[in-house]
């Protein structure tokens, strides 16, 4: 996957980076962390779409645990009335109650868990309204037709304090020619 092409392996824990083929909407220059992927479909959250809304407006008690910028994020276009919480748990220890490890230090948190029960065991947190979802075979087809680059995720990607520039930063750290895509203009017609 060093060149952004998918090798057919499981995608959970990987990043999907929108290629220039996706030129508008929520997925334009999006960075998606894949949370689940199997033959029935895939689910992920868009990491670089902060909303101008505090989390306390929809989930009281969690605001003080959030990583900067501290806003609610739009995780995707599906079920915008639902919320998914990602946290980072330092070290290899067993995560706190209500927390399930995805990869490395990145975990999903059950937002029905009382915040005070997990507060001391978290090193970072982000909450997403909605998610990105694909039916069985749909994501694989989109990757095959050139809509997504598939690249390894780093734990810090989900908690970036500068999410608006995450697409460029993730591309820059890729080996070879894929790193060149970080200089691709947002609107090539204006170049």
UniProtKB/TrEMBL annotation:
UniProt cross-references to InterPro entries, sorted A to Z: AlgH-like (IPR003774)
Superkingdom of the organism of origin: Bacteria
GO annotations of cellular component type: cytosol
Family: Belongs to the UPF0301 (AlgH) family.
PANTHER family: UNCHARACTERIZED PROTEIN YQGE, UPF0301 PROTEIN YQGE
Matching NCBIfam families: PRK00228.2-2
Designated name of the protein: UPF0301 protein BN12_1310006
Lineage of the organism: Bacteria, Bacillati, Actinomycetota, Actinomycetes, Micrococcales
